[in-house]
């Protein structure tokens, strides 16, 4: 199977949802509510999920979907639901054919809520399962930093297709990243990248547009002949990944370059295009299980760009265990040639 149709729909759906998130990004009030686990969700997360699930349901009605958000809190919060609908109802690509391929405008507020609730699959080892993170890095989104719209197709536990929209990453692969990117910078025309990949075909990027897809170009990780010159990409939120253990691993490897800190799967995207080399996500809480939607697309993108992605023990991420990576702990992503060296340093620091 070539997955060309899946890839095209995924790219276009992510592009349209990203347009929506950008609109919310520049609003002062983002309709933030706190979920049961105390993490934030916004108008941007809910709306992007509705738009992408509409596109999947229209084009691949038999597939299952594992998505991060659900609509129960919105059904009780009529005001927020109405606000989201107000923002979602007019979203369309300036490409009539493409927009109708995705299902055109969502017909009603009720239809929007029902779409948001279409992502409750339990996941697992069999069949075609889409994994969606409508906004990854919601805290970055709220801070005015990096965030990403992430979609992957998993078939029989194996990631086959990935598409990631990063509205605040520079189009230029080698541009230096500013982490505390403000609304002013984010609005500049040089930002907004759509990454995509199909297993066995390499990794690609293109500028995000508000219409049809721009031309894509292949990307790859950069060679690291001397590991002491490598650059880490790591998270901003200290509660999601241990920054002190990360620093200890860097020291063990002799790396003195400062880390590039950014929220979301923009970290996978950055190392996949050679704007950084190593991404470590070292556990903070002992029993935290990583979510499949936080990693599926990025895992394939990095591997297709010449990297390896494992957990802290060196085991490949296993997307067949349900909604979480239940058998993995943490993430270590690096160019293939140096991955073993990085794992050795991680094991040393974490005393594994
Ligand atoms: N204790 C924890 N350890 C690791 N990841 C966590 C976590 N608590 C929340 N997360 C996840 O971290 C993601 C953001 O990652 P990062 O810090 O790399 O930007 C969040 O995605 P969302 O923003 O989609 O909720 C959330 O799923
Ligand atoms: Mg979240
Ligand atoms: Mg996420
Ligand atoms: Mg999210």
From TrEMBL:
Superkingdom is Eukaryota
Please give the InterPro entries that the UniProt record associates with this protein. DPNP, Inositol_monoP_metal-BS, Inositol_monoP_superfamily, Inositol_monophosphatase-like, Inositol_monophosphatase_CS
Q: Which Pfam families match?
A: Inositol_P
For the keyword Metal-binding, the answer is yes
List, in alphabetical order, the Gene Ontology terms for molecular function in this entry: 3'(2'),5'-bisphosphate nucleotidase activity; metal ion binding
Annotated Mg(2+) binding sites: 68, 133, 135-136, 294
Reactions catalysed according to its record: adenosine 3',5'-bisphosphate + H2O = AMP + phosphate; adenosine 2',5'-bisphosphate + H2O = AMP + phosphate; 3'-phosphoadenylyl sulfate + H2O = adenosine 5'-phosphosulfate + phosphate
Identify the EC number(s). 3.1.3.7
Q: Which cofactors are required for activity?
A: Mg(2+)
Choose any GO biological process term that the UniProt entry carries and state it: inositol phosphate metabolic process
Classification via Gene3D superfamilies:
3.40.190.80, Fructose-1,6-Bisphosphatase, subunit A, domain 1
Q: Which PANTHER family match?
A: 3'(2'),5'-BISPHOSPHATE NUCLEOTIDASE, PHOSPHATASE
Q: Which family does it belong to?
A: Belongs to the inositol monophosphatase superfamily.
What does the protein in this record do? Converts adenosine 3'-phosphate 5'-phosphosulfate (PAPS) to adenosine 5'-phosphosulfate (APS) and 3'(2')-phosphoadenosine 5'-phosphate (PAP) to AMP.
Q: What is this protein called?
A: 3'(2'),5'-bisphosphate nucleotidase
């Amino acid at each position: 199977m070539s997955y060309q149709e899946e890839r095209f729909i995924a790219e276009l759906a992510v592009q349209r949802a990203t347009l929506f998130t950008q609109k919310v990004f520049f609003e002062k009030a983002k309709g933030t509510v706190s979920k049961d686990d105390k993490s934030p969700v916004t108008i941007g997360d809910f709306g992007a999920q509705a738009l992408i699930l509409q596109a999947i349901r229209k084009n691949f009605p038999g597939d299952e979907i594992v998505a991060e958000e659900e609509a129960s809190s919105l059904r009780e919060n009529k005001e927020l639901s109405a606000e989201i609908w107000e923002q979602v109802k007019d979203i369309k690509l300036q490409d009539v054919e493409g927009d109708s391929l995705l299902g055109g405008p969502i017909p009603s507020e009720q239809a929007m809520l029902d779409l948001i609730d279409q992502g409750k699959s339990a996941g697992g080892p069999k069949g075609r399962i889409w994994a969606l993170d409508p906004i990854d890095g919601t805290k970055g989104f709220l801070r005015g930093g990096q965030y990403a719209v992430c979609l992957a197709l998993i078939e029989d536990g194996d990631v086959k297709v990935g598409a990631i929209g990063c509205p605040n990453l520079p189009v230029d692969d080698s541009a230096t990243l500013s982490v505390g990117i403000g609304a002013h910078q984010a609005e500049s025309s040089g930002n907004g990248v759509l990454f995509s990949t199909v297993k066995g075909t390499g990794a690609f990027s293109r500028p995000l547009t508000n219409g049809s897809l721009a031309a894509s170009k292949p990307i790859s990780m950069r060679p690291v002949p001397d590991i002491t010159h490598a650059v880490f990409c790591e998270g901003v939120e200290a509660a999601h990944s241990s920054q002190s253990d990360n620093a200890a691993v860097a020291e063990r490897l002799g790396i003195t370059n400062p880390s590039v800190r950014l929220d979301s799967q923009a970290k996978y995207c950055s190392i996949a295009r050679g704007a950084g080399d190593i991404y470590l996500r070292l556990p903070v809480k002992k029993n935290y299980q990583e979510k499949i939607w936080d990693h599926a697309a990025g895992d394939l993108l990095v591997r297709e760009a010449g990297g390896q992605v494992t957990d802290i023990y060196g085991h490949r991420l296993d997307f067949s265990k349900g909604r979480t990576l239940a058998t993995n702990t943490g993430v270590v992503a690096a160019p293939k040639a140096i991955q073993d060296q990085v794992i050795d340093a991680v094991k040393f620091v974490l005393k594994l």
